[in-house]
Amino acid sequence: MNGFQWGGFRWGGSPWSAFPWGAFAVNLAWAAAAALAVLLVTFAVAVRAGVHRIVDVAWGIGFTAVAAVTLAASAGHGDLIRRVLVTALTALWGLRLAVHIARRGRGHGEDPRYEALLAKAPGNRNAYALRVVYLLQGALVWLVSLPVQAAQYVPGPPSPLLWCGTALWAAGLAFEAVGDAQLARFKADPANQGRIMDRGLWSWTRHPNYFGDFCVWWGLFLLACDSPAAAAVSVVSPLVMSLLLTRGSGARLLERHLADRPGYADYQARTSGFLPRPPRRR
Question: Residue 108 carries which DSSP code?
């Protein structure tokens, strides 16, 4: 027999033909429609409120919508345990993030990032925001969610990869949630006004929430890896997310914003920029 057996699915032989490509292609369209709908509704709410920072709340909601639509569209395909699990993990991560961002931004005006971006608008600011913020974010939700979509069409029962991915996802969610909670408590104390957060997880990495995101998306990718076809079509997702978190709108952009703050250079010198490790001595 060509190939080998893993978790009820045979690698080798004709693994590509075992994946339901036609149904998955239809699902890609449904997922794109779900992501677009979430971002267009968010755009309408933001225009009415006059604050485009609301789009950050839609990030997690968009992934939740894609996962839910895929769960419905994949009926009759894939393994029920895998389908329900990947949907639940995505929704838990996405809704927690949405609630956290909504609470953090309550009562604040426009985000300085969006203020600076929209200041460059050649014409109508809202039309410009729709093109370069909302539609782009909708496309990224669709692209990054590929493992969430592909995993639900993987034939065969789950293998140990499913539980490895779930464990990595859980570690990432814990990093995000604990890091966010520690930072919120730090900022709520008036004695810390103007100081750099360098305690708890923030003493091990300058970006525990971004590192948590990194683990979440590589974990979700592992849930699709029982099928070589699903793995191949969705590996772009964690790679793109890793680039966004480390080189794009994540850690690098935030570090530029904080570079001139007193004490930040010393914090950079003793604390890892991304992967957690014990802090260096002062």
Answer: -
d(CA 41, CA 70) in angstroms, rounded, equals 20
Rounded Cα gap, residues 124 and 218, in angstroms: 39
pLDDT tens-digit map of 12-46: 446 677 899 999 999 999 999 999 999 999 999 99
Q: Is 9 helix (H, G, I), strand (E, B) or coil?
A: strand
The 3-state DSSP class for residue 4 equals strand
Determine phi and psi for 86, rounding to 5 degrees.
-65, -35
Distances (CA, A) of 52 to 104, 198, 200, 239: 14, 30, 32, 27
Burial zone of 174 (CB within 10 Å; 0-12 exposed, 13-18 middle, 19+ buried): middle
> pLDDT band at 246, cuts 50/70/90?
confident
User: Using CA atoms in the order 101, 106, 108, 112, what is the torsion angle rounded to 10 degrees?
Assistant: 10
Give the start-to-end residue ranges of the domains of the chain: 18-270
pTM of the entire structure? 0.89
The alpha carbons of the chain give a radius of gyration, in whole angstroms, of 20
- Cα separation, 20 vs 6, whole angstroms: 19
